[in-house]
Structure formats: C-alpha cells, structure tokens
Amino acid sequence: LIFVSFQTVCRQLNSTLWLNVGGRSIHSSAVCCKNRAARIRVGKGDRPVTYEQALHPHQIAHRKGWLSQHTSNLQGEDGAADRTVEDLFIRRLIYGTFHGCLADELVIKRRGNLLVICALMLQKLPPHKYYFLVGYTEELLSHFYKCPVKMEIQMLEEKSVYKYL
Amino acid sequence: MTASMRIASVRLLSKTRHYFSSEVAVQPGARTVHHQPASTRNVCLIPVAFLHKGRAYGTQSSSVTVTEEPDLLFQKLSVLVKSHDKAVLDSYEFFATLAAKELGLTLAKVFEPPKNIERLTLLKSVHIFKKHRVQYEMRTHYRCIEISRITGSTSRVYLEYIQRNLPEGVAMEVTKTAIEKVPDHIQMPLWSVQSQEKQGSQ
C-alpha cells in the first residue's frame, strides 16, 4: 500500500513539477531559416576563397568595403534602381569580355558623370589583347551610357587566396 | 574705409537662397573676379559619334576676367557632405578645412550631425515563410562645414576645388546665406515719415 501510494505521489509530482520543463520533442524548422546570401558555406577545406568571398555581407563597413560606390543609396538621393541595373550590366559585360581573366569582383566607382571600373586581372592573355579589350569596353560603355567610362586594371599572377573553406 | 563704414550704416538683410542674384550694391566700386571653369571654355563642334571619349578631361588653365558688377557677399556658406563611410568623411573634412585655412577663410563650425539609419524588414523567401524575414539597413553619415563672411568669387573658387575632389560615394549639399542691401522703400519706418510730413505741413 505504501509502495503504491509512493508511486502515485511520484506521478503526481511528475505531472505538476516537470510538466513543461525538459520536455523532449521534435523541432522542425522551415527550410529558409539559415542565411545563404553572398556567402560560401564551410566545406572540406580544399576550396580556395578570396577575402571578398570569405567575409559575409554583415561584415560590410566593418571588415569589408563596398564593391559599387555611388550616392543614390544615401538619404535624400534618388536613382538607386538605375545605378543597380547599370552595375549589374557592367559586371556581366566585363565578366564575359574578360572571361577567365578576372581575379576578383569588379569595383565600380562614380565620380560625378565619370564611371570608373577597377578590375583585378590574371595574366592569361598577351598585353596587346588586354589593351584592345580595355579600349573596346570603354568605348562601348561610354556610347551606351552617354558618360565617360574609364577602366583601371591591375594585373596579378594568380588569384590571391585568403582562406581554404 | 568708407566702404566698411557704409556697411556699418546700412542695415543688412539676410536671405537664404540657393541661386545667385545681382542685387547687392554695398561696394559700387568693387569689381567681381570671375573664374570661368574649364568646362565652359572652347565650345568645339565635334560630331556626336566622337564626343564620348573616356580619356582625361582637358585640363586647361582657367582665364581670370575682371568685371565692374559688384561681388555677392555671403553671411554663411554651409557645406553638408553625406556618405555611407565615416572614415571617408573624416579625411574629406580634413581636406576641406585645410583648403579653407590655406585660402584664409573663417571656419565658423565644423560638426557632425547625427547619422540616419534607414531599416527595411523584408520577407526572406520568394513565396511563403512569413515568419522568416531578413533585415537590411542603410546608414548615412553627415559632416557639416560652415564658413562665415565669404565673397561670391571666393566661394565659387572654393566650391569648385572642393567639388572636383569629392570622393566617389559622397554627396554634397551647399546652402548659401546671402547679404543684401535693405530696399529703399523700407529704409525709414512709416511712422517717422508720417510724423515728418505732419511737421512739414504744420
């Protein structure tokens, strides 16, 4: 009798004290909980990654700079959508023109009317081809956007690796 | 000497405006020195196909012209620069204050208005998942440089120098407070004019 009563007391204690504490249940999360934007997921450790790719977008203005510098995202300024579309077009055009030669992302700067495209290139082609392609893109883009376009390229031997992820 | 005394005797009206107007007549003998920016010189007739060249802009020395019209006077010239990057604003402030000191301008105030953060909370996914959002923010830092008691030609030179060296990603707003001569019809108060007339009639 005493044993049964002890059991019932334990069950009552269980029900009152440990009702909501330490319960084990299945946690099902929706697929898009984690952020995946502009970041390379950690892998086996054999994939070389540049500084730009290794740092996540929340590090911008902290450990990273800006790839496209213009005034349209400031308070009280307009034209943000136009500048973004122009930037995307320029990035795709140059990625295609200098296919396989780009070491890192482009940096696009706007100073007044002038559009400056700064690129890091690998030494894949002979120099006279680089000169021709640079002149060709400058001429094409300046006719397309009706503003002076300048390209400043810097040559590298190979891609600069920051980490292996 | 006489010109400065004339300024002291005439009561001056301040008017904040963004454009020039040639109504100031404080120093009739003063001359305005105009600096024509290099872009307005030499209008060349070139066919449209060759106009857009990505080469260096023509750096020719600007001509100095002397005219008889009186120069504008500004009580305050306020230059507000805004950017996403505070370090860029720090270096630009150093540059602008150095330029002002070299030109001999009086820097009234150099201060930093509080930053403005615009936050957006958007849905993370294209279709559903209302509970999962992503937050973005755009920070705008400001810096204000106020210069007091400057002439029109000096302000033009200073602003042109400052604006040619504006870094990318930095926007500038310029506010000028001009000084004008008080119009003749309100020089004397109405009640004193009326009392003079009454005394004259009596």
Keywords for this entry:
heterodimer, A: 165 residues, alpha/beta, four-stranded mixed sheet, two-stranded antiparallel sheet, 35% helix, 17% strand, flat, B: 202 residues, alpha+beta, Alpha-Beta Plaits, six-stranded antiparallel sheet, two-stranded antiparallel ribbon, 4 helices, 8 strands, 35% strand, disordered N terminus, transit peptide (chain A)
The percent of residues in helical segments of chain A reads 25-40%
Detail the poorly predicted runs of chain B: 1-42, 48-53
What's the number of helices of chain B?
4
| Shape assignment of chain B | flat
C-alpha termini separation of chain B: 41 Å
Named CATH architecture of the domain at 71-116 and 142-182 in chain B: 2-Layer Sandwich
Query: Mean of the pLDDT scores of chain B?
Result: 75
What is the overall shape of chain A?
Answer: flat
CATH superfamily of the domain at 71-116 and 142-182 in chain B: Ribosomal protein S10
Percent strand of chain B equals: 25-35%
Strand content of chain A: 15-25%
Pfam families (chain A): MRP-S24
InterPro entries (chain A): Ribosomal_uS3m
Protein name (chain A): Mitochondrial ribosomal protein S24
Keywords (chain A): Mitochondrion, Ribonucleoprotein, Ribosomal protein, Transit peptide
Give structural notes.
Chain B: Its main location: mitochondrion. Chain B: One of its GO terms (cellular component) is mitochondrial small ribosomal subunit. Chain B: This is Small ribosomal subunit protein uS10m. The complex is a heterodimer of chains A (165) and B (202). Chain A has 165 residues and is an alpha/beta fold. Chain A has helices at 2-17, 51-54, 80-97, 127-145; strands spanning 48-49, 68-69, 107-111, 114-122, 149-156, 163-164. A four-stranded mixed beta sheet of chain A has the order 2-3-4-5, covered by helices on one side. Chain A has a two-stranded antiparallel ribbon with strand order 1-6. By secondary structure, chain B is α+β, with helices and mostly antiparallel strands. The longest helix of chain B is centred in the middle third of the chain and has 18 residues, at 86-103. Chains A and B meet through strand 3, helix 4 and strand 5 of A and strand 7 of B.
